[in-house]
Design a protein that fits this description.
about 150 residues, 9 strands
């Protein structure tokens, strides 16, 4: 990835051992012709309780180390969420390393305080990262019930 160079684990999640899906819609910020911030979106099937629905999965959030602290994560996520609101699902969902939770909370994301099961080659597993959500439709609350992403995570 251009933002990090040739690093083998740019998002710090390789130790989870999970298989991840590529994103379909990409948003970036360039400075002097160089991509310095990115995020991606993907519509994801999910079951919450007995209801099957979709969320907009947000992933691949990255800011180059040399330009952090300039609000670029906020900028790239705002552009992505503006588009996500046109995609139909009522909720955005992301997974992040626990140290990043306060950053996402400052950007309006809320911690989902329950296990989220995600599909993997061997079957469903509990997501080991922090799960966070944001309303895409007004101030939609997260529905009650067990959460299972019906695909690999994004």
């Amino acid at each position: 990835m251009e933002i990090f160079g040739d690093g083998a684990d740019p998002f710090g999640v390789a130790d989870t051992g999970l298989t991840w899906l590529p994103k379909e819609d990409h948003f970036g910020v360039k400075l002097d012709g160089r991509l310095v911030a990115h995020t991606g979106l993907l519509r994801m099937p999910v079951s919450i309780g007995a209801v099957e629905t979709e969320v907009v999965g947000v992933g691949g959030v990255a800011v180059a180390p040399d330009v952090r602290g300039r609000g670029l994560a906020r900028k790239v996520l705002a552009a992505a969420l503006e588009h996500a609101r046109t995609m139909g699902p009522r909720h955005g969902l992301l997974f992040c390393r626990p140290p990043l939770v306060p950053l996402y909370q400052r950007l309006g994301w809320r911690v989902l305080n329950q296990d989220v099961h995600v599909e993997q080659h061997e079957g469903p597993v509990i997501m080991p990262l922090a799960s966070m959500w944001t309303p895409l439709d007004g101030d939609a609350d997260w529905p009650a019930g067990a959460v299972r992403l019906l695909s690999f995570p994004m």
